[in-house]
């Protein structure tokens, strides 16, 4: 028995792409691929039946059922919008997003092969946008002495080569990728570090979302000024995820103060002030300084010294 009383039409948020802090070139590529993908799906759902010539993805490969899919690699440091780009693509294409991580596939080559075949089959069956998050776990460079690692990489490479749908791979460790994957990628998008303006836009989006969804919370103007322009916040070099986490922690601190110290506004609202964000910024800054002292370099410099990614 399937309960259907709570089922409703899916509402897609096409405007999400406008809020994503990526370059115009990356945005254009996402829009172009989305339109192509959507047109293909519309053809499949046509009341006159699918046009066979349009239904089958064209491939320049001479081997049947090989190279018919599209694989897009998104790389960059953590928190720059890789996963969000794939999520926005799915919303723009009006398709579900099927996210797969290493925990969904197992640890042994045979187990991974079976799981991969199952997930890829479901992705094709449901016309999903597939997202392999942190795919470097399965695509690290092979070596002569590590048969276990080599078998996992080989299984993954073969599976994605014969997939006929659309797939996103994300990584923040591009330097560790096996060179064979590069020949299987159709499009590569590097998402660079966020600029000062990008960060301000993320803060602004968060403040607007809070105002729309939590009218019982009031944000002090001095706090917004501090988040947008203060040198201490700028030097923290927060990525998008860190800004989101700092924002949530700041709200939690404000709600705690309101409940336990009775710090409400005259109209009974929770007041979020500059002091709440300063507290979060101090904790974050102290931790970053500790890591730099421990390593003798910044996180970006550490990644570059290991050959994992550039600065």
UniProtKB/TrEMBL annotation:
InterPro entries: AAA+_ATPase, AAA_lid_fung, ATPase_AAA_core, P-loop_NTPase. One of its GO terms (molecular function) is ATP binding. It comes from the Eukaryota. Residues 41-60 are annotated as: Disordered. Residues 68-195 form the AAA+ ATPase domain. Pfam families: AAA (PF00004), AAA_lid_13 (PF23232). Coiled coil: none annotated. This is AAA+ ATPase domain-containing protein. It comes from Exophiala aquamarina CBS 119918.
């Amino acid at each position: 028995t399937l309960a259907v009383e709570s089922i409703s039409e899916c509402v897609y948020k096409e405007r999400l792409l406008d809020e994503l802090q990526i370059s115009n070139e990356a945005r254009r590529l996402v829009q172009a691929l989305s339109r192509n993908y959507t047109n293909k799906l519309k053809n499949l759902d046509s009341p006159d039946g699918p046009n066979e010539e349009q239904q089958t993805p064209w491939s320049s490969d001479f081997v049947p059922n090989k190279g018919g899919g599209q694989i897009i690699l998104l790389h960059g440091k953590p928190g720059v919008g890789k996963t969000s780009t794939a999520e926005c693509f799915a919303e723009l294409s009006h398709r579900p997003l099927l996210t797969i991580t290493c925990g969904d596939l197992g640890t042994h080559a045979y187990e991974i092969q079976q799981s991969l075949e199952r997930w890829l089959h479901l992705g094709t069956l449901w016309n999903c946008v597939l997202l392999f998050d942190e795919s470097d776990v399965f695509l690290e460079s092979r070596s002569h002495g590590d048969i276990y690692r080599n078998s996992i990489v080989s299984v993954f490479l073969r599976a994605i080569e014969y997939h006929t749908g659309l797939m996103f791979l994300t990584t923040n460790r591009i330097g560790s990728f096996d060179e064979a994957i590069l020949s299987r990628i159709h499009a590569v998008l590097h998402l660079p570090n966020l600029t000062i303006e990008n960060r301000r836009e993320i803060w602004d989006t968060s403040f607007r979302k809070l105002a729309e969804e939590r009218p019982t919370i009031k944000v002090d103007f001095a706090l917004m000024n501090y988040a947008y322009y203060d040198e201490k916040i700028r030097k923290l070099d927060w990525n998008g995820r860190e800004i989101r986490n700092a924002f949530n922690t700041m709200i939690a601190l404000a709600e705690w103060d309101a409940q336990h110290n009775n710090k409400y506004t005259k109209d009974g609202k929770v007041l979020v002030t500059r002091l709440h964000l300063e507290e979060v910024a101090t904790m974050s800054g102290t931790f970053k300084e500790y890591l730099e002292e421990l390593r003798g370099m910044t996180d970006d410099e550490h990644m570059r010294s290991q050959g994992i990614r550039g600065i």
